[in-house]
């Protein structure tokens, strides 16, 4: 398996991993499918803050981060997303992607990383807890999908950068 920064040519494969999760699960509250055009723009803008795992020429998953909230006061606080293809789950690929992403974040001076985890995603909560993220907030009924309200768990990890 190879971990590397995403390339614009990966956009279709990333959409193929992400869109079934958007359309069929509650792991994300969004209902709008990702487009290759939008993903190419994200990849171009984020550089090494958008990592992918590749094996035998096939994309197995991705992890990316972006500023948690707008404005200069939040410049060192990021939120991330990590998603895997079904065949990649349970193989340590998510952990490897997160290690690469966190190393890149530290290199960029990021102090704090958040995960926004659906209250209906206990596997996501356990995954992040195993990586040292701790639940710092539960926002009741802030997500709406599939005709129901869902809680959002905010999980945080201090990466240790102080400058």
Automatic annotation (TrEMBL):
Residue span(s) of domain N-acetyltransferase: 1-155
InterPro entries found in the cross-reference section: Acyl_CoA_acyltransferase, GNAT_dom
Domain of life: Bacteria
Keywords associated with the record: Acyltransferase, Transferase
Listed GO MF terms: acyltransferase activity, transferring groups other than amino-acyl groups
Protein name: Phosphinothricin N-acetyltransferase
Organism from which the protein derives: Salipiger mucosus DSM 16094
